[in-house]
Amino acid sequence: MEVSKENFPEWYNEVIEEAGLVDKRYPVKGMHVWLPYGWQLMRNIDEYFRYIFTKYNHQEVYFPLLVPETEFKKEGEHIKGFENEVYWVTHGGTTPLDVKLVLRPTSETAMYPIFSLWIRTHADLPLKIFQIVNIFRYETKQTRAFIRMREVHFFESHTAHATAEEAEEQIRENIEIWKKIAKKLALPYILVRKTEWDKFPGAHYSIGAETIMPSGRTLQVATIHQYLQNFSRAYNIEYLKEDGTHDYVHQTTFGMSERLVGAIVGIHGDDRGIILPPEIAPIQVVIVPIITKDKEKILREAKKIKEELQEHFRVHLDDRDNYTPGYKFYDWELRGVPLRLEIGPRDMENEQVILVRRDTFEKIAVKRSEYISKIEVLLKEIQENLLHKAEEEMREKIKEFDDLEDVKNHKGIAVVGWCGSYECGEKIEKLTEKKIIGIPMEKRKGRCIICGKETDMMAYVAKPY
Ligand SMILES: [Zn+2]
Questions:
Q1: Alpha carbon of 447 to ligand 1 centroid (Å)
Q2: Which domains does the chain have, with CATH numbers?
């Protein structure tokens, strides 16, 4: 890496390509090519989504990419929120279409007309599904790999319930699932409730998981929405109750995207490159043979080690002929492989290997007789260390202020008292040139930083991506 992480925006732009995650040269703005290593990382995250949501009784589906204009326009708030950022398909060949089609910006309007056919009685509830697809949004702001894209790799779960209480219970379950995902990805976060003017278009309320990037700007990495009956009324998703009457279902959604990769890259990297949490790293252990003599013998041993380890871990043997070990170290550090295993002539004599941690660069000599259990322990330690360190860094960036100038200059999340009125909220945003990214989930006493009124609400103020 030529750029230091101190210069974060430049470092980020450079490292995602140098580490082999994406190729940004695709000739459409806001769309990039996933390279094999980056795609494997994304797929490992997707596999965990599949595992955890299936465990919580969701089923995977796949809905079409195109949504008819007639369905897209059924929920008023929703269409208002998205109409400026959808791509339209207007022609089939040279023939104008009778009904124009939208490339899904999210899938409510694709799914809910079909939900109204699937759901007839209380016996069909709850309905819990998810899909992992690409979505399209015509972003007009500056695009940034993983963070603000026009084609986005997207996860969305959608649920329908008989009662509002059951939908609330689902929100709690979604938060529980999110906590597990964040741990798996070693991501620190805070949960916030979105303001009325910032919630998802059509939602009753929205909850965001926010993390802080090294630049001090916040990144929303997951959103959980309570719709209640806002969409079911528009899409006529009714069910027959046990008492013979009808009611509309209550709905929730949960969305995440490739932003998670952006967060992992930004939060865990260093001057040498990215650092991947072992739980989702495409390669957990890279074997680098140190060949000073006995080339054939060392390579044979390295292959044997690979065979032994791949029963337990995701392993790669770097047996490239025309590169020095030093170059290989540099290369795998750049790509963030959590553990490097070195095997050379002296290690063979001593029946040992050398393990090097990517997070601390600590070098550990381990006997071959116990190296599998040692690697297991080290990978766990690296995972925990990454999360712990990131959590600490994030905590330091969240500070309480009662002076607007301090809020404006703070790099991170500023916590201020807010009476909750739109007028004061607008003033906070204008005077600090930042945004209220949400309010804490718990109440707390204080005074509004604008009008001085006593309040039990605080606001998180930051500059979001
Ligand atoms: Zn106020």
A1: 8
A2: 8-268 (3.30.930.10), 285-381 (3.40.50.800), 399-462 (3.30.110.30)
Ligand 1 centroid distance, CA of 43 (Å): 46
Along the chain (465 residues), what's the average pLDDT of each consecutive run of 10 residues? 93 97 96 98 98 98 97 87 92 97 96 98 98 96 95 98 98 98 98 94 96 98 98 97 97 98 98 98 98 92 97 97 95 98 96 98 98 98 98 98 97 97 97 97 93 96 97
Give the pLDDT score at 420. Answer: 94
What is the 408 CA–ligand 1 centroid distance (Å)? Answer: 18
Taking only the tens place, the pLDDT of each residue in 364-413 is 999 999 999 999 999 999 999 999 999 999 999 999 999 999 999 999 99
CA of 417 to the centre of ligand 1 (A): 8
CA of 200 from ligand 1 middle (Å) equals: 24
201 C-alpha vs ligand 1 centroid, how far in Å? 25
The pLDDT value given to residue 460: 98
pLDDT at 285: 98
How many angstroms does the Cα of residue 354 sit away from the middle of ligand 1?
Answer: 60
Measured in Å, residue 206 CA sits from the centre of ligand 1 at 22
Distance 431 CA to ligand 1 centre (A): 14
Residue 320 Cα to ligand 1 middle (Å): 64
Q: What number of other Cβ atoms are within 10 A of residue 172's Cβ? A: 10
Ligand 1 mean position, distance from CA 445 (Å): 13
